Structure formats: structure tokens, C-alpha cells
Amino acid sequence: MKKSTIWMLTIVMALTFAGLLYVQVMYMEEMIKMREQHFSEGAKRSLYALSTALEQNETKKFLEEDMMVIEPEIFDSSQPQLQGIESYDFNNFRNNGLDDKISSYQKALKEQYLYQKGLLNEVILTILNQSSNRPITERADSATVKSYLKTELENNGIVIPFEYAIIDRNGNIVYKSSSYNENTNKKTIFTQALFSNDPDSRRHYINVYFPDKNKYIFSSIKFMIPAFAFTLILLIIFLWTIILAFRQKKLSEMKNDFINNMTHEFKTPISTISLAAQMLNDDSVRKSPTMMQHISTVINDETKRLRFQVEKVLQMSMFDRQKATLKLQEVDANNVIANIVNTFKLKVEKYGGRINATLDAEDPIVNVDEMHFTNVIFNLLDNAVKYRRDDCPLELNVATRNLPNNRIEITIQDNGIGMKKDDLKKIFEKFYRVSTGNRHDVKGFGLGLAYVHKMITELKGDIRAESEINKGSKFIITLPINN
């Protein structure tokens, strides 16, 4: 699949998932707003109904008390306006004119109504003048307020715990519920005036808040949370799949380069060995000891070269394993590195360079696989030769020293072409090869440093690189030591 196709699919799917998440988030926000509005309206209706119920209770109480006094007067037959009504009987209606009697009866009823209205007005004036003088604890006791408030809230579908307090016009608490918190956010408190007809100076209010309001509101969108979570998981899986697709594509390209490189690397020594074998069939060559020695040297060198390339390929198989199989043993790092330097010195001097070893570690015993440890140091030295500069002699410095916490540091520094910062981040990746511009004599599979990193990690060590263009590179290895 082309990279452009992958990018197009990535963009389309990313936009689709982003749109889906946006719609879900907007829907959840609207649901929360509607739920909060519905909750607020229900709470306000409940408080208004509470205030109305308290006013009705107080009015009823006054009426009952005053009617006990008024009622005997209303039905006292000695009242002048009522005597006429009781003195009428059927015979009077029969003996006198019907129209006159009806008119007199209506007049009597009207007078009775006006009298009773006056009495009721007196009761209402008494309620208005005297009720506000009573203590609020008598007019609205805590048990009644709590009972009425709970009932009204349930009638409006709000069945959650609440806390309340009765306050005066100055905000002072008259009484409150046991868990009422005075430091509650004012925005979450619902307030309603009690007995709205009271004068401002004697007016009281009720404050109510709901500790579990947020849980109550969000409970209505709980069914959306799994859908949102699943969508988010799908988005993460999709992004991870795209990342893997790009990695696999990059890996595929690197493997193709590796195969092409490997074919070229194998062809050269095989062709050379084949040519040398053909020369051995020539009688004149067999009779010349010098030629025989030369051909033998060529075959030996090319065989070593071929074996080295085969080892490189075999190293690649290690990267597919979870853990490398190592034969650990205690070795003297100074001695192993000194032997490698002595062996490698001829190759460095071949290019007009020199190699210096400063092995100052006083405690150099490490627990490693000697073969792999040797290959690690050899790979780093070989890279220094490959990426040398043409304008100055190669200078290689190898050093060891002890670090705190029972560790040893091994440094390999050169004065080669160096690397860019971007390359430093990738040099330990499998199949990655640093670009060398127009240089065509640098060959390899991009496995050397990846192998080095894997081996040092398996040995519970650490490796890092420092480099600067045209000033060289420095590789720093730290390993635990055995006391």
C-alpha cells in the first residue's frame, strides 16, 4: 500500500472519529444542561409550594381561632337583621303581597352577608397585623418545614438528600438541618422567601442545597459513558494500527534494502573465491609458490569476510527472540578490550591511523558473555574505521574507568565524520543506516549498532552516543561490575 493511501485513510478515519466524539460530547453537554434546568425548576416549584403551604396553614389557624369567637355572633337570633328572617313563615307569605315579602327577604340576606364580610375582613387584618410578630420557629417549625419540603420535592421528582436553613433578612441562621454547610457555594443554593406578605424588616428565607446534585444530574447520562469510552478505545486502537502500519512499511523497505545489500556483500567474496579456485586449476599457478601463497591469502581473507557477513545475518535472528541466550561468565574487561585493541591495531594502521587504550578501571570484573561482549567492542571499532574522515588520520581512543554504585564505564571515541542529532535518535534501530552523502565505500546491513544496543541491554547495562558533524563520535557503555 502506498504511503499516500495510508495517509488518506488515516485522515478520513481520524476526522470520522473526531466528529463522532464531538457529537457525543455535545449530546452529553445538552443532556446535562436540560437535566440541570429541569432540576432547578423542580426545586424552585417545591420551595414556592412550601411557602404557599406555610401561609395557608397560618391563615387556617387564625381563621379557626377567630371563627370560634365570630360564630356565636353570626348565628345569634337576637341580631336585628336576623329577627326578620325567623319571623317570616308560610302564612305570612300567603297573607301578604308576595313581591313585598321577597324583597324584604333579599334585603335581610344582603345585610347578613355584609355583616359576615366585615367580620372576615377583621380576621384578615388581624392576620396581616399580628402574624408577622410571631416567632418564625412557631410559624414554621423545623419538623413541618422538613416534612413539607420533602413531600414537595418528591412530587416534583427530586428524591435525593437535601440540607436546609432558615435565615433572616441579614443572613443570620435561625435554625438549620444537622449537616447544613454554611460555606457551600452560593451558586448551588436555592432560596425562597417565607410569608411573602411580611414586612421587609421581619421577612425570613429558606436556603436549600443538594449535596448529591451532581450525581443526580450525571446519572441521566451514565448510559453515554460506555459509548464514549468504546469510541475512545476504537480511536486509540486505530491510531496504534496506523503507527504499526507505518512501522511495518518502513521495516519492509529496510528489509528490502537489507536483502539487496546482503546479495551484494555475498557476491563479492564468492566471486573472488570462485576466481581463485579457477586459478588453482592452472598448472603454471600451481608451480609458482608465490602465486599459491597469494591465492591462499586471498581465499583466506575472502572466507573471513564471508564468515563475518554470515555472522551479521545470524545476529539478525536474535532480534526476533524475547531474550537472547547468553553464557555469562566473569571476565576482566580491561584484558578483553586490550586483546581486541591489539588485534584491531593493524586495521587502523592500514588507513594511516592509530588507536590508543587508556584502561584505568581498577575493578574491571564484569559478568558477561565473552563472545558477545567482544563482538560489541569490535562493532564499535569497526564503525569508527568505516566512518573515518579522508582529510585527517584516524584517531581512536578506548578507555575504561570505574563509576559509583559498582559500575564500569567503557568509552570508544573517534575523530570521524560524526552524526547529526536526528541520526543519534535512530542509530540503535534495526536496519537503520546513517546517510554518508556521496561515500559509496561504506557497506553494511544496519544491524551493528542495533545488535550492540540489544547485547548491552541484555547484560543489564546502558549505552549512549555523543556526536558532532566532522568532529567525531563517542560511544559510552556502562555495565555492572562483580565485587
Notable characteristics:
single chain; 483 residues; alpha+beta; five-stranded mixed β-sheet; four-stranded antiparallel β-sheet; 14 helices; 59% helix; 14% strand; rod-shaped; protein kinase activator activity; transferase
Structural overview:
This protein has 483 residues and is of the alpha+beta class. The protein is 59% helix and 14% strand. The protein is built from 14 helices and eleven strands. It has helices spanning 3-74, 80-87, 90-95, 98-130, 136-139, 142-155, 213-218, 224-280, 283-287, 289-317, 333-350, 370-386, 421-424, 448-458, and strands at 163-168, 173-176, 190-194, 204-209, 329-332, 354-359, 365-368, 395-403, 407-414, 462-468, 472-480. Helix 1 packs across helix 4 (98-130), helix 1 (3-74) packs across helix 6 (142-155) and helix 8 (224-280) packs antiparallel against helix 10 (289-317). The longest helix is centred in the first third of the chain and has 72 residues, at 3-74. It is rod-shaped, with a radius of gyration of 51 Å. Mean pLDDT is 80; it is low at 77-90 and 438-442. It comes from Candidatus Limisoma faecipullorum.
Précis, in short:
The chain is α+β, with helices and mostly antiparallel strands and 483 residues long.
Show the helix and strand layout.
Elements: H1 3-74, H2 80-87, H3 90-95, H4 98-130, H5 136-139, H6 142-155, E1 163-168, E2 173-176, E3 190-194, E4 204-209, H7 213-218, H8 224-280, H9 283-287, H10 289-317, E5 329-332, H11 333-350, E6 354-359, E7 365-368, H12 370-386, E8 395-403, E9 407-414, H13 421-424, H14 448-458, E10 462-468, E11 472-480
